[in-house]
């Protein structure tokens, strides 16, 4: 048996009210670059598959299998590594996933045939799915609450940056090197950057919030004191210090099934919200790519070698959407930003019905990328704030996994609709149907959900079913007594 013992510490209050420090800048870069590398690896296949198809005489079905293997790997990695991040800590997992990524991305660069390429892609996808869980769980647990939403959004904006880098690097490499060499250098470049930033991530301490869940209070105090060292003497910081009195608690050793059970009972609405939002945005992202590759660009007779350029401009618009998201989550709040961005994403699909020229269709594609990036960045910020520390990475992993279902369904359904009718409008209707759950869920959260702007993670993720407002709820710090 373990005893119930109250803990009293102001460490998290100090962390929440701290001024911005150099540590926060380093953490933002270290996590953001990892997110960009995930995007680089996810998106590069679209630019290089034409080369692989020629080099290994691949069929269209084999190309689809390569995409499916990637998505399934991400699904498994998100859930598996998500639970491990809750069980064994954030730092171990965001180091392990980046190292795993670097090793298997290197293997991809040296793949000797189609089968070995599939194996290395699947293994790399496990790490990328794990990064989704580990990074999104970690990113909000360090930052001051006044900066948390904006900073989380900036980290997540690394995704369009990575996609732009992927398109740009592919275009340059195919211009400078023979195609059969250029694609290998592209994968090797991602692996090299991953191993370098592994060294940068080593300097990031374990999450104080996760440590507090384990009862390691002395370590929490030391980490927060080290971060605060450069902020000492700041009047606003010193005056903001206050003390939370945590309640007694019977600790429970985390287990995968117990986490899933708690997410499906006490936190089912919050985990359900995150999952629906992730499904909607993933369906739009992958559906829009399929729409461009299968319908828009072929009908406009765009050469395959020019595809990376169109994806580059789409991701430039996505980056702009990320910047808007970083501003809006703090300026107008999480709930309003969520509703506006998901609604815009669906509305951006409609102009494809009207435009019949390549510039018009590309503009509509860019508008979709702008809206969906703003949307999923806001969704990840909210999901990380409304799930408790002990379940955060597992819950985010579940939502990412459900999102990958949308990523698998969208290209299949869009392709089937287009091939069955021969009309692009039927594919657009399918895409709208897959996207609609997003704005509906955002509207429901806007009406009944709680605003988590400028509140602590403990307040925003207080026990589900507690009728008190977030600011009135007690903060609970569960831990194992000695």
From TrEMBL:
It is found in: Membrane. The keyword Cell inner membrane does not apply. The chain crosses the membrane at residues 65-85, 92-112, 118-142, 154-175, 181-200, 276-297, 309-329, 336-356, 362-383, 395-418, 424-445. It holds the Pfam family Sugar_tr. The keyword Lipid biosynthesis does not apply. Residues 27-453 form the Major facilitator superfamily (MFS) profile domain. CDD domains: MFS_SV2_like. Keywords: Membrane, Transmembrane, Transmembrane helix. It is a multi-pass membrane protein. This is MFS transporter. It comes from Sphingomonas colocasiae. The lineage of its organism: Bacteria, Pseudomonadati, Pseudomonadota, Alphaproteobacteria, Sphingomonadales.
């Amino acid at each position: 048996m373990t005893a119930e013992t109250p803990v009293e510490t102001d460490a998290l209050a100090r962390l929440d009210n701290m001024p911005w420090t150099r540590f926060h800048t380093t953490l933002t870069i270290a996590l953001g670059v990892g997110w960009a590398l995930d995007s680089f690896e996810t998106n590069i296949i679209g630019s290089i598959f034409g080369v692989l198809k020629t080099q290994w005489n691949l069929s269209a079905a084999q190309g689809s299998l390569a995409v499916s293997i990637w998505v399934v790997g991400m699904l498994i990695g998100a859930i598996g590594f998500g639970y491990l991040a809750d069980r064994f800590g954030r730092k171990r997992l965001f180091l392990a996933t980046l190292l795993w990524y670097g090793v298997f991305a290197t293997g991809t660069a040296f793949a000797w045939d189609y089968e070995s390429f599939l194996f290395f892609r699947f293994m790399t996808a496990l790490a990328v799915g794990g990064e989704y869980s580990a990074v999104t769980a970690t990113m909000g647990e360090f930052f001051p609450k006044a900066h948390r939403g904006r900073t989380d959004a900036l980290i997540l904006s690394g995704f369009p940056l990575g996609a732009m880098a992927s398109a740009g690097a592919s275009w340059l490499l195919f211009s400078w090197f023979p195609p059969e060499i250029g694609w290998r250098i592209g994968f090797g470049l991602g692996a090299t950057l991953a191993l370098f930033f592994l060294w940068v991530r080593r300097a990031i301490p374990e999450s104080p919030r996760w440590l507090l869940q384990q009862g390691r209070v002395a370590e929490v105090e030391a980490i927060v004191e080290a971060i605060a060292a450069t902020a000492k003497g700041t009047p606003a910081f010193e005056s903001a210090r206050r003390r939370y009195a945590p309640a007694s608690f019977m600790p429970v050793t985390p287990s995968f099934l117990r986490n899933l059970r708690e997410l499906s009972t006490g936190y089912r609405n919050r985990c359900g919200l995150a999952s629906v939002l992730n499904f909607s945005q993933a369906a739009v992202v992958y559906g829009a790519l399929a729409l461009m590759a299968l319908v828009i660009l072929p009908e406009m007779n765009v050469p395959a070698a020019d595809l990376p350029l169109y994806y580059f401009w789409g991701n430039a618009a996505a980056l702009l959407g990320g910047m808007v998201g970083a501003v809006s989550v703090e300026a107008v709040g999480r709930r309003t930003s969520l509703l506006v961005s998901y609604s815009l994403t669906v509305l951006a699909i409609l102009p494809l019905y009207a435009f019949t020229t390549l510039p018009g269709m590309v503009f509509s594609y860019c508008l979709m990328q702008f809206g969906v990036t703003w949307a999923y960045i806001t969704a990840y910020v909210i999901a990380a704030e409304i799930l408790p520390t002990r379940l955060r990475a597992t819950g985010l992993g579940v939502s990412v996994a459900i999102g990958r279902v949308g990523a698998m369904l969208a290209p299949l359904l869009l392709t089937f609709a287009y091939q069955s009718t021969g009309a692009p409008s039927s594919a657009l209707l399918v895409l709208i149907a897959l996207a609609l759950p997003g704005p509906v869920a955002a509207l429901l959260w806007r009406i009944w959900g709680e605003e988590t702007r400028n509140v602590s993670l403990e307040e925003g993720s207080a026990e589900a079913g507690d009728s008190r407002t977030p600011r009135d709820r007690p903060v609970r710090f569960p831990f194992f007594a000695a």
